[in-house]
Design brief:
Shape: globular
Number of helices: 12
Structural class: alpha/beta
Radius of gyration: 18 Å
Oligomer: single chain
Helix content: 25-40%
Number of strands: 8
Order of helices and strands: HEEEHEHEHEHHHHHEHEHH
């Protein structure tokens, strides 16, 4: 089980809004608490390198599995998935752990609730650091991307489930990791499904081991893929933008220049044309030239250094 790989990390379940949510923790937190929020196809384990680094530096690291993911309970009504639930879960987790203020570190779809939490709860937020996803007020439009674009495919009810159902969980996670670690946006031809874009002859990224894959597979075997398709992909249209958003806390975006998300419509402009700076007065953006979508696993030492520098530059009052 995952605890074997990282014995310094403790695991527990918290009763949160009618569900038992799995939380991984490390460190005692003399300098503050850092809450790590994963994306898809990830889990708490995605942050293993960063958790140990901040714990060693004097912070408390907390990494939950989102509801419906990994070792957390499945919500009773999967189709009712909403970003508001994630917001309320985060507040309830902080209250359950008696954490008054927190640093948020997020990636992939986890960035969306992290940004929203910081905007709606500045009194509970010390700062927010997001990997690979800038703040997109009102979201991003995918209408200019082809029909075979993976998000458009996975938003169709049942399509991803049928595609994934042809293979075991380990192969599904493996294929998605291979595809998402590339610099090209995953797009299938009309006669293909997304799982057809890579096969077992395609090697794993050099920084992602078979042992890592086994941990991810074991956790998705428990949760399945039904809720992860609803949240984030089929719930994107439910996200409610905040009127006239303005961050009152420091914001740090780390972007891998080989991250396929960098090629999404509007992403580069938001970062390089000053669009995001209008919403985040205290904004820092750093680019990692060879960084992929999984930059925190690909270059853990580099990301740890950036993270610790951000934390130390904004000590908890």
């Amino acid at each position: 089980m995952a605890t074997v790989e990282q014995p310094q990390i403790e695991h527990s379940h918290l009763a949160i809004r009618g569900l038992n949510l799995h939380v991984a923790q490390a460190g005692t937190g003399e300098l503050g608490t850092v809450l790590f929020l994963h994306g898809f196809p990830e889990i708490w384990y995605s942050w293993r390198h960063q958790m140990l680094a901040v714990a060693a530096a004097g912070y408390r690291a907390v990494a939950p599995d989102w509801r419906g993911y990994g070792l957390s309970d499945q919500p009773p009504e999967t189709e009712a998935a909403s970003y508001e639930d994630l917001q309320e879960d985060l507040l309830a987790i902080l209250d359950a752990l008696s954490v008054p203020k927190v640093f948020l570190v997020a990636k992939d779809f986890g960035a969306m609730p992290a940004y929203d939490f910081a905007l709606r709860n500045p009194n509970r937020t010390c700062g927010v650091m997001c990997l690979g996803i800038p703040f997109l007020n009102g979201g991003s439009s995918f209408t200019t991307l082809p029909e075979g674009f993976y998000i458009r495919r996975w938003r169709e009810p049942g399509r991803a489930e049928a595609d994934f159902g042809r293979y075991d969980v380990k192969r599904v996670v493996r294929t998605i990791y291979v595809l998402f670690s590339r610099s090209e946006i995953p797009i299938a031809n009309q006669d293909q499904e997304i799982m057809d874009l890579a096969d077992l002859s395609t090697p794993l990224p050099e920084w992602f081991t078979e042992e890592d894959l086994a941990v991810y597979a074991s956790l998705y075997e428990k949760s399945g893929f039904r809720y992860p398709m609803e949240m984030p992909y089929r719930a994107l249209h439910k996200s409610q933008p905040i009127e006239d958003p303005k961050f009152q806390v420091p914001v740090f975006v780390v972007m891998g220049e080989k991250d396929y998300v960098f090629k999404f419509p509007g992403i580069e402009a938001v970062l390089k044309d000053g669009v995001m700076a209008k919403f985040a007065p205290d904004l820092k953006v750093t680019y990692i030239p060879e960084g992929s979508h999984f930059v925190q696993e690909q270059f853990p030492d580099m990301v740890n250094e950036l993270l610790l520098s951000f934390l130390k530059a904004h000590p908890v009052a």
